């Protein structure tokens, strides 16, 4: 089985998309991450859902988890609202790793190796300069396990 056989339509976001909109897309579609595209629709990186959380959670709570415990539930439940004034670009890590993109002819093992190397829960399938879809870790594991 090749990447073209596993690729499925997948939502994308731009660098200027609201981080809150991206979070809603992640949650509403149960996605592990989003493919970020440039103005021409070409993948530039993957925004993992954990990166969106990292932007929303106060830094002091990340650095010292004990501090997160002292925030009451009403305020803790609203921390994502802080994303309204931020963009996807601001959620991306300063250093981008390997771009998780495969050719439509890539094998299951090539896809798995890229996901592992790039620490990405999904890869974009690009052929002829166009994004054909994406493969999630869940879909890849289902294929590898025969489920």
From TrEMBL:
CBS domain mapped to chain residues: 98-145
Lineage, top ranks: Bacteria, Bacillati, Actinomycetota, Actinomycetes, Micromonosporales
InterPro entries, A to Z: CBS_dom, CBS_dom_sf
Name of the featured protein: CBS domain-containing protein
Superkingdom in the source lineage: Bacteria
């Amino acid at each position: 089985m090749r990447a073209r056989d596993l690729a499925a339509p997948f939502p994308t976001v731009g660098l200027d998309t609201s981080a809150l909109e991206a979070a809603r897309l992640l949650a509403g579609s149960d996605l592990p991450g989003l493919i970020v595209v440039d103005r021409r629709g070409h993948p530039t990186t993957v925004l993992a859902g954990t990166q969106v959380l990292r932007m929303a959670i106060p830094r002091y709570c990340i650095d010292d988890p004990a501090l997160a415990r002292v925030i009451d539930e009403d305020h803790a439940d609203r921390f994502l609202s802080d994303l309204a004034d931020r963009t996807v670009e601001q959620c991306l890590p300063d250093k981008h790793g390997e771009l998780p993109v495969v050719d439509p002819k890539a094998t299951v093992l090539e896809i798995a190796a890229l996901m592992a190397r790039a620490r990405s829960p999904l890869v974009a399938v690009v052929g002829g300069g166009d994004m054909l879809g994406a493969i999630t870790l869940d879909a890849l594991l289902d294929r590898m396990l025969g489920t």
